[in-house]
Design goal:
Length: 228
């Protein structure tokens, strides 16, 4: 089962991805995580990337496409498919992804598109905290850790991503509307799009996605969704 997760920042892609990984054994590939790892390493590439990520701009296509191609070409024994989170984000990335997937014989089965309203997005992102050590995600109000600032999973430090401030979130939303939103149609035309409401609880979403995966049944039929 190969899936991509689409939707604006804060729609809940990362949280859903973590649950899908646990429930379906899919390999979670997040370009945001790959880029942040590169930045942590302090490499030349990491330094170049930093200014884009921290201002909410997109990293140049050729950089992220090369990263994804490398990751998808690695042997991923044990996983039952992949789940791309945060990629593609432009039409060029979507077209190049199709070429890479044709080459490796691993086409996409579903593009899960998570819609969410602006107030929900802002509330989620400004309250989001991430574990520096294991990457677990909490929310200071909706899903707080037992001890403030400490990860329940591994005891690591919880921090706020520098691009989760209100001003940068607004820029990320603008970039999303301009560059990423058009690719929803790209997958609709391929007949692979499933629209989900990111305003729903993650557990409910998991049930809906499980049904799609298990029955091959479309979301529209289950939820009366209007598409995008
Ligand atoms: P995310 O963790 O998916 O919210 O991504 C954080 C930031 O990483 C984005 O705001 C971009 O600056 C950069 N980024 C992640 N994925 C991509 C991509 N596919 N193309 C370009 N930039 C990306």
């Amino acid at each position: 089962m190969n899936t991509i997760l689409l939707g604006p920042p804060g729609a809940g892609k990362g949280t859903l991805a973590a649950m899908l990984k646990d429930n379906f054994g899919l390999l979670h590939i997040s370009t945001g995580d790959l880029l942040r790892d590169e930045m942590k390493g302090g490499t030349e590439l990491g330094k170049t990337i930093k200014k884009y990520v921290e201002s909410g701009e997109l990293v140049p296509d050729q950089v992220v496409i090369a990263m994804i191609e490398k990751k998808l070409s690695e042997k991923n024994s044990g996983s039952k498919g992949y789940m791309l989170d945060g990629f593609p984000r432009t039409t060029v990335q979507a077209q190049d992804l199709d070429k890479i997937l044709t080459k490796i014989g691993q086409p996409i089965d579903y593009a899960l598109y998570m819609e969410a309203s602006l107030p929900v997005i802002l509330q989620r992102l400004t309250g989001r905290r991430v574990c520096r050590k294991c990457g677990a995600i909490v929310h200071i109000k909706n899903r707080p850790s037992k001890v403030a600032g400490v990860c329940d999973v591994c005891g690591g430090e919880l921090y706020q991503r520098p691009d989760d401030t209100e001003e940068t979130i607004k820029n990320r939303m603008h970039v999303y509307a301009e560059k990423t939103a058009p690719i929803v149609d790209y997958y609709a035309k391929q007949g692979k799009l499933e629209t989900l409401s990111g305003d729903e609880e993650t557990e409910d979403l998991l049930k809906i996605v499980a049904k799609i995966f298990n029955d091959g049944q479309r979301t529209d039929k289950i939820k009366g969704s209007t598409g995008h």
